[in-house]
Write the structure tokens for this entry.
Amino acid sequence: MKTFPDTFLWGGAIAANQVEGAYLADGKGLSTSDVMPQGVFGPVVERVAGDHSIKDVAIDFYHRYPEDITLFAEMGFTCLRVSIAWTRIFPHGDEQTPNEAGLAFYDRLFDELAAHHITPMVTLSHYEMPWGLVQQYGGWGNREVIGFFERYARTVFTRYQHKVKLWLTFNEINMSLHAPMTGVGLPETASPTEVYQAIHHQLVASALAVKACHALIPDAKIGNMLLGGLMYPLSCKPEDVLAALQENRAWQFFGDVQCRGAYPGYMLRFFRDNGIELTITDSDREALNASIDFVSFSYYMTGCVTADEALNQQARGNILNMVPNPHLASSEWGWQIDPVGLRTLLNVLWDRYQKPLFIVENGLGAKDEPDADGVVQDDYRIRYLNDHLVQVREAIDDGVEVMGYTSWGPIDLVSASKAELAKRYGFIYVDRDDSGKGSLARSRKKSFYWYQDVIATRGAVLKDG
Ligand code: BGP
């Protein structure tokens, strides 16, 4: 197989809090992202008049989306993954009625996409929730938040039922284990029981959203979204292999619940062994019994796991505490680059769930410097994306059903982990730096033309090896 299937969706993925800016415009409320100016692992900061976060303006997508969508269309996108900022719709989170100005913004955005024949894929909650729900209710630790989320989900399903047919519930739902404030609105000091109880509430909310979507938009498809962090055993020592199995289950558990509608036995044992007692009601169990239509995930890197505690300790502080793989090179941010791992992961998820898969994030964050003519010659990004797409094609050839591929950050945006603009992913350069300087003008990088070619030829121009 040299080309991708006709039905394969090609495009890019962005998130409201990383592109829109306009953080208080048209009635929007503060979100967890707005009070975390240093990124998803950073502290919560009280916002005061006259202060500033790079995300307040971000890349001003809120006002510039028509120009950006025109550029995406020029590349040939057939899909754009976006998220709705929950706080544009329910500013505090617990209102009875939605904010019309916020709803109207996404109507305009979806209409613009339709005008360019680009299918929207919408994440309901991408690394943010109303700050009001954290302050007043204690975030996802409080089961009342399930109802607020369900109201929000039903509101947007109803409003956009004719415009959006592809939905995702929570971005990287397993990330709460590493960034509890971003994931479930809990402080770093939360105990494992508190974090897993909040996760449980979020899994129930995700399942209720799946049911609501099926009821309100019968021809829509709704998926989950996992941080696809495949882990390898550092050696073939049986203890390392078992440790890798358990580490992978730490994130696969979320997918298992979302696909199978119930907690797997290994997780119940994990809870028992760690003294974690959750409140799970009968109606929670009934709610969880919902099945998503497809599995989506992000893929940036792989890591290693060992049963050797001394080696694990050395790895603490690395991204997600992974032990480095001696066979792989890393990005400037220390993320290990592993295209073959993407083929493996696609096969693992297909074997596990037998549901269509969608790669909704993948890409290379790098420091781009425009050359004398003002063009970024990002051959490193082209190589990264080429090598990953070749492996996607191999996985399809293996028999895996893959719906599409949306690369992360098709236009430069604010990074999630450290809220930097210096870490760029785009095919489109945005003139703005971390001090907030720059015209916000957009320009095409070398990779823009490369991706355009890949899409136009359905991958025929990809280079093996
Ligand atoms: C994922 C998030 C995205 C995104 C990406 C890249 O975890 O879903 O929001 O930003 O990672 O991470 P970063 O921006 O930190 O480079």
